[in-house]
Amino acid sequence: MLFPDLQILLLILLRTGGFVAAAPLFSSRGVPMALKVLLTVILSLSIYAFSFTGVVLPPLTDDLYLLYVLREILMGLTMGFVVQIVYSAVLMAGQLVDFQIGFSISAVYNPMSGITQAIMGRLYSMTALVLIFVTDAHHLILGAFYKSFEVLPLGVGFSVTIGTGWLLKTFSVFFAIAFQIAVPVLLVLLMTDLVMGLVSRTIPSLNVLMLGMPLKTLIGLVFSMMGLPVLMSSLFKVIGDMSVYLELWIQRIS
């Protein structure tokens, strides 16, 4: 077996590495792998220095220590996934607007997020990422992650069933939030479709198909710019919920 201090540090590294690999603000593909590894090591050393200096794990066999290793990897990945669920509300809102405004056809692979996004989707996601760091929300998220070592110490069991059910419920909540973020622009575009349908019935000679798409794009862009204050307030709410829901998940499974 490894030395006791190294055992503890390795478990902290695994939980931290899983979190960094899954959390949206750290897992971006635009962040170099060397920087991710450096961040994982720095966070792990700080957690060990302030919380685990002098702590000794009970004697462990190789098989039992392997279970500890798997548990910490799963714990870190799940906590990162909780933050990702909250952030996905912004991504889904952008995709809904893109589909309705007609930008989905211009969707391309976004190397930063690792998914295919169109214009509004990239705008929403990049704005949210910037706001995370501008509002210091990343400090709150890291604070909640640090707290997980107090609520869920190394080697302590947790309820997988309760955690999974809570994740599914949270995903449905933030799917509804994604629709709420996108609904102002969606309603305007829906009204545009209704008006164009009435115009086509009134003036049959008018080519609505040729006129409708550019008009929807123009109206969608104009109202998206007009609705920026509403969008920003919605994004602030979603960003603030990241650390809150991470703490709720930690408390739920403890």
UniProtKB/TrEMBL annotation:
<keyword id="KW-0966">Cell projection</keyword>
<dbReference type="GO" id="GO:0006605">
    <property type="term" value="P:protein targeting"/>
</dbReference>
<keyword id="KW-0812">Transmembrane</keyword>
<feature type="transmembrane region" description="Helical">
    <location>
        <begin position="175"/>
        <end position="198"/>
    </location>
</feature>
<dbReference type="Pfam" id="PF01311">
    <property type="entry name" value="Bac_export_1"/>
</dbReference>
<feature type="transmembrane region" description="Helical">
    <location>
        <begin position="38"/>
        <end position="57"/>
    </location>
</feature>
<dbReference type="GO" id="GO:0005886">
    <property type="term" value="C:plasma membrane"/>
</dbReference>
<feature type="transmembrane region" description="Helical">
    <location>
        <begin position="218"/>
        <end position="239"/>
    </location>
</feature>
<feature type="transmembrane region" description="Helical">
    <location>
        <begin position="123"/>
        <end position="145"/>
    </location>
</feature>
<keyword id="KW-0282">Flagellum</keyword>
<feature type="transmembrane region" description="Helical">
    <location>
        <begin position="64"/>
        <end position="87"/>
    </location>
</feature>
<dbReference type="InterPro" id="IPR002010">
    <property type="entry name" value="T3SS_IM_R"/>
</dbReference>
<keyword id="KW-0472">Membrane</keyword>
<keyword id="KW-1133">Transmembrane helix</keyword>
<protein>
    <submittedName>
        <fullName>Flagellar biosynthetic protein FliR</fullName>
    </submittedName>
</protein>
<keyword id="KW-0969">Cilium</keyword>
<keyword id="KW-1003">Cell membrane</keyword>
<comment type="similarity">
    <text>Belongs to the FliR/MopE/SpaR family.</text>
</comment>
<feature type="transmembrane region" description="Helical">
    <location>
        <begin position="151"/>
        <end position="168"/>
    </location>
</feature>
